[in-house]
Amino acid sequence: MAALGADVPEPVRQYILDSNMPALFDVMAADAIRDTPADLPSYLIDWLRKYQQTTQTERAGQLVKEKMTEAGLSDAFISAFMRCYDDLVAGRTGSLPESSIDPVSDIPRYDTLSNAADPGLLGQTVVLKLNGGLGTGMGLEKAKSLLKVKGEDTFLDFITKQIMHLNTAHSTRIKFMLMNSFSTSDDTKNFLQPKYPDLLADPDVELLQHKAPKILQNGLAPALWPANPELEWCPPGHGDLYAALMGSGRLDALLAQGFKYVFVSNSDNLGATLDMKILSFFAASGAPMLMECCERTESDKKGGHLARNKATGGLLLRESAQCPKEDEGQFQDITRHRFFNTNNLWLNLEKLQSVMRQEGGVLPLPLITNSKTVDPRDGDSPKVYQLETAMGAAIASLPGSQALVVPRTRFAPVKTCNDLLALRSDAYVVTDDWRIELHPNCKGQPPVVDLDSKLYKMVDGLDSLIPNGVPSLVGCKKLKVSGKVEFAAGSVVEGEVTISNSTSTLQTVNGTLNSAVNF
Asked: Closest Cα partner for 264 from 187, 207, 338, 204?
């Protein structure tokens, strides 16, 4: 750029030089010469507008990174989060059209596995439960795993008793870990300390999940909320498992201690226990990851499914948010896409470490974007994005990963009060090794429960439905309840039953119900 004229005031001259405007105008001029626009003034105005937007986004990204650094988050997590942030800025949604994938049919099944298990593998295996959820969608303000499931036993009671049973059955002490979030850590430890102090004796029992900054939808800077700074943060999704293992140094430490494998599952899935047949199969396979899958049913059709990448032949997960609208019919076709991820995963620690080191300490995972307000209870507070990743998506990032079709007995999660009612009923039974699985009479198909969301979405609402005890659902295919209803003691539901109360008065149902009930 030509030298600034002598008539330019010194403060202005210095500002131009400090702001690097000469270099900026040189670039703008070079672009204009290259593009030879017909309308030069409009071109220059548009060029400057785009430059300003880019500069603002770059500054917003710097603020996001600075916020995480000041909070003391690990380098592994910051790198992983900034990858997601860059995807957000670039508009990369991870869309997976039907044309890019093939259905999966050729994966092994649990019932074909050898019974020749190797007990020696137990000393090389870690059992890790994901325990970061609060269950706010069910009206809870504490760790979801503290919710009572059967009688007085909570999820954590069952999990602990499962581990204790394994220790007794195999005369060993299995390495056990909980991945807690900043929201569940204290609740969990306060619950375990008086009841199961031996479990907390291991200083490594807790793997702490990171926290992620909420991102303002307007400008993509980190959200600020002085009224309650804790609301500026959110959980990053269970895909954070990998950054948490690497960033905490736990991945290297476990390998140094002789551990080779980790079995990971959700704390609300009490069907997921360490299975010797699966462990032996996984160890022999040499795969970096094994994903347990189940056959999709009508109740699963809106959830994600397993597929193959048409270009590479590798396995991947496609979630509903990644499916273009025009492909929804095929997405929900359970005869085409037959398998879903149970989130019971087996990881080879050596191979996980190798891939993460190759990727600069992170495991690339597709972005999941949730649109919220910074204060969930204040719909007028600023709109934000919560950036998350899913643990199971790593199946596409770890070449050679495999999947295994397992019985539905290994999948009994609780995401809603509909699930909780079914789990509390006799449709699910407690096994000798403290698993909860479907009653054999259900023949692999859990009862479909559909409760009035206005009345029974929260746990206290569910409790008002069953103050006299949970109805029998072992013979139930589908139960739908709308309106104010209360089950009498000893109620039995068989087949497909709809209970509807259109009045404002609480109505009680009792006896054996095998047809529609209307009030």
From this structure: 207
What's the token pair of residue 137? 């969608």
Considering just the CA atoms, what is the radius of gyration of the chain in Å?
27
CB 275 within 8 A of CB 293: no
Average pLDDT over residues 494-501: 96
Residue located via tokens 């900054």: 213
Cβ within 8 Å of residue 469, ≥6 positions away: 487, 489, 490
pLDDT in tens, 165-192: 999 988 888 999 999 998 899 999 999 9
pLDDT digits (tens, 9 = 90+) for 334-366: 999 999 999 999 999 999 999 999 998 999 999
243, HSE (Cβ side, Cα atoms, 13 Å): 28
| Structural contact between residues 122 and 418, judged by C-beta atoms closer than 8 angstroms | no
Q: Is the predicted pLDDT of residue 487 greater than 90, yes or no?
A: yes
Q: Please report the pLDDT score of residue 4 as a whole number.
A: 46
Distance CA 434, CA 386 (A): 36
CA distances from 427 to 89, 344, 422 (A): 47, 22, 7
Nearest CA to 155 among 335, 476, 412, 396? 412
The encoded tokens of residue 444 equal 């692999």
465: alpha, beta or left, given left = phi > 0 and alpha = psi -120 to 50?
alpha
308-336 residues labelled b (16+ CB within 10 A) or e (exposed): beeeeeebbbbbeebbeeebeeebbebee
CB count within 10 Å of CB 340 equals: 21
Catalytic residues: 415
The answer for residues whose C-beta is within 8 angstroms of residue 116's C-beta and 6 or more apart is: 280
Q: Please answer whether residues 57 and 216 qualify as being in contact, where contact means their C-beta atoms are separated by less than 8 angstroms.
A: no
